[in-house]
């Protein structure tokens, strides 16, 4: 397929997302409106200032690699120009690895990793709801007490 072909496969214009959902999968009306709103928010994430907040290293790397170009839509830059004077592309192994790693992660036991449960101090005299569902919703990283960057408030992931 070559670098240029791979580059074209891994980019999709913004308008094509809703068209494909409608024509290929018969998804339209309310869901399409919600999806279009999400597409707009993700396309403008640089305006919102939301930090990347992936729940795993794989997800964070993919969020960092995914770009939005107003002409090309969502782009995973797996090919880059070798020389400004030539039009030849070479494969960016790191970006391609981010894509492959995310696909492998999605094929695992969890579709998306979950945020670790928040620890609530017991000093308020109130009930401790965190222990009611102990173990549910926390992934392996959470069990080890690792923090997740950007888990508070609005985020790239929540959009």
UniProtKB/TrEMBL annotation:
<protein>
    <submittedName>
        <fullName>Uncharacterized protein</fullName>
    </submittedName>
</protein>
<feature type="compositionally biased region" description="Acidic residues">
    <location>
        <begin position="127"/>
        <end position="143"/>
    </location>
</feature>
<feature type="region of interest" description="Disordered">
    <location>
        <begin position="113"/>
        <end position="159"/>
    </location>
</feature>
